[in-house]
Amino acid sequence: MKKRLFVNLIVLSMISSLFGQDLKSLYEKADNFPGTYENKCYYIASRTEYIRNTSCFSYLTNTPSGKTFFLIDAEKKTKKIAFDHERLATSLSDYFKEKTDRNKLPFYSIKFNEGLKSIRFTWKNEPYECDLTAYKIKKIEDSRRGDRSYWGRVFTENSTNPVASPDKKKEAYISEGNLWIRDLGTGKTRQLSTDGSPSEYYSSNIYWAPDSKKIACCKYRPANIRKLTLIESSPNDQLQPKMRDVDYIKPGDALPIRRPVLFDLEKESSVSVNFAEVLDQFDLRLERWSPNSDYFTFIVNKRGHQEYLIYKVNAADGNLTALVHEKSPTFVWYSSLYNYYLPESEEMLWISERDGWRHLYLYDIATGQVKKQITKGEWIVKSVVYVDEKQRKVIFKGCGKDTGADPYLEKYYSVDINTGKIVDMTPENANHEVTFSTDYKYMIDAYSRADLPPVTVLRSGNDGKVLMGLEKCSIEELLKSGVRLPEVFSAKGRDGKTDIWGIIIRPADFDPQKKYPVLEYIYAGPHDSFVPKSFAGSRYLAAMAELGFIVVQCDGMGTANRSKAFHDVCWKNLKDAGFPDRITWIQSAAQKYPEMDIDNVGIYGTSAGGQSSTGALLFHPNFYKVAVSSCGCHDNRMDKIWWNEQWMGYPIGSQYKESSNTCNADRLKGKLMLIVGEVDDNVDPASTYQLANALIKANKEFELVMIPGAGHTSGEKYGERKRRDFFVKHLLGVDPPEWNKN
Q1: Contact 380, 400 (CB under 8 A)
Q2: What is the SS3 string spanning 398-436?
Q3: Tell me: the pLDDT tens digits for 464-515?
């Protein structure tokens, strides 16, 4: 107790000497910190847009005098101010009856029309257009505006809207569950199927063959759709609460079954396509017809996500051939798969992790055999950007190809399909953010690192050669303000071999002679990697450091964009969350930097990070002492099906309980705060409430903060303050400000 009091006195002294101001001022400094990068960094190109049917790009940059939009003509290699900022500011002032500064235009992005005669912009969530001749402003109708889109919506494929044939002579449609066609010339109709019913009907996703003589369609058996009921206690427009139901399928729920059917209109025949996985499908999707209408393909993602197949169906007889059969003893990461057909050569590009790394393969469509592996090595093809069929060249985004560099930095390459020769189009050791022209002749590349200010150049889209320098960021004013750039740090992980990469962020008035509690921000979802790689990407983490912490973030095993073995650690084991790597990494950092007090470590995160941050106190309480978890998926059976069955597997088994925070609530040690959005339609809010219930039953102490009206959130402004208060109190050992005195 005396030791703790002594430490608290040291911390109080540290805060006073570091900042010479009260805690409220520190909170204000943290609030304003992210904007420091915008106000003190100059000549960063952002919001880059290619202007269709031109050779031009536009972008925004911040200069010492304010915001300026520029127009780049790549063909002429010229750069000029995009429009008359003064005239537009005057027009805005007249139109909106609000004084507008030419250096502070009230929007951050623009879209030119193809003739460069006008621009569109959005202000106060409304779209406007300004012609650049008379500088007249008008409000425009936005056809994209409408009902709120919801990611979890289930489409039951029972539309009756007709689908026209390629030759425009016929249309196909669904009526009373069956497939019909109508001759558009005569108006005559013909029923193609007779076995449809309300409980098993033909899908409205109708695929005509290019010759307009055949149709591929699925017979669709719907499944019961689970609904998530959300109650908004305090709506803005009425006194009484509101309730709404949203589609929300959870792990283990029944799923629709689709059975492909081939219809030959000339033969007046149909063939139901049978395949082994028909009842085990997670998803089935008709994909494409061949250009000569000889066959069509469909994709089967088998439930459990250990097999993914592309089938080819012969249009003459309905015979089935497996074109691709991707299989894994753990999981096939289906959302990262990619295929591209080369119709002239009857080939297909495919991305697979079958050799332990994500690489490009070339398939022979006729035989279903791999012709060659196009890329290989201990690095990954992250995504394909463009396929040039004439030159047989692929432009792709890759990671980890440069030995000794941060393996997560994104760079752009081209590869010759025939020879496998790779050209590095962005050779600088940095993270490259590229905007291409639609013909891929030009590219604007803004490259930076967490510790390297951005440089923006115009490059050739053919080989990456720099054609023109555009912007070079100046950070002198930022550094004068006391901001310290993050340190990129790597150390060995749990196996003593694999490099774990992350960043260390220190407060502006850092004193290496003092001890600082360590705060880890965690997001360990297996669907990506998460440590910021571009400049200023960590500014929101840095805001937390200003309160007197050293803030860290790293990507442990179980996250993506490294080897398949690195990724597989998460399989049926989300509670792992890379913690053995994270702890080892932080310990290694503390050996190098003794100012890091690793006896005093906190952790916070949202969503999957909410699950992991609570898990830190349940499964690693000897290292982590304080956690704040927002909108956590605390039991993977409570969350959406597609994310959780991908990583936790199917059928539902004991692995779900083993990774459940709720089922392990009695293990809690340390200080825990839970934050939840009342109407979160991403992660079921009941997941947090059930954890709270389990903690209460286990007689555990914790805090629960519910944000009325909030969705999937880290806590919004109030939750952010509560999070800071919690860490200030339990890590710094200082009472937070008394906010009710305001």
Answers
A1: yes
A2: EECCCCCCCCCCEEEEEEECCCCCEEECCCCCCEEEEEE
A3: 999 999 999 999 999 998 899 999 999 999 999 999 999 999 999 999 999 9
Q: Could you tell me the two tokens for 513?
A: 């002679």
- Residue 418, Cβ neighbours under 10 Å: how many? 12
Per the CB < 8 A criterion, the answer to whether 501 and 531 are in contact is yes
Q: What pLDDT digit, counting tens, does each position of 436-466 carry?
A: 999 999 999 999 999 999 999 999 999 999 9
Task: Detail the DSSP E strand segments found in 607-694.
Answer: 624-630, 671-677
- Cβ pair 344, 290 in contact under 8 A: no
In which order are the strands placed within the sheet that holds 56-63? 46-51, 56-63, 66-73, 78-81
Q: Are 116 and 56 in contact (CB under 8 A)?
A: yes
pLDDT one-digit tens code per residue, 38-81: 889 999 999 999 999 999 999 999 999 999 999 999 999 999 99
Q: Return the closest-CA partner of residue 405 out of 424, 390, 423, 385.
A: 424
Tokens for 363, please give them: 């398939």
Both tokens of residue 4?
């703790």
Quick count: other Cβ atoms within 10 Å of Cβ 485? 20
Tokens of 62: 């911040």
Provide the pLDDT confidence category of residue 121 given band limits of 50, 70 and 90. Answer: very high
What pLDDT does 35 receive? 85
* Rounded Cα distance, 426 and 435, in Å: 13
Residue 151 pLDDT exceeds 90: no
Q: Please give the pLDDT value at position 145.
A: 53
Q: How buried is residue 229: exposed, middle or buried, by Cβ count under 10 Å (0-12/13-18/19+)? A: exposed
Q: What share of the chain is helix, strand, coil (3-state, %, to 5)?
A: 20, 35, 45
Measured at the alpha carbon of residue 229, what is the angle toward residues 224 and 231, in degrees to the nearest 5?
170
Contact assessment for residue 282 and residue 306, using Cβ atoms and an 8 Å cutoff: no
Which two tokens mark 386?
Answer: 């463009």
55 contacts: CB under 8 Å, gap ≥ 6: 73, 74, 75, 76, 437, 441, 442
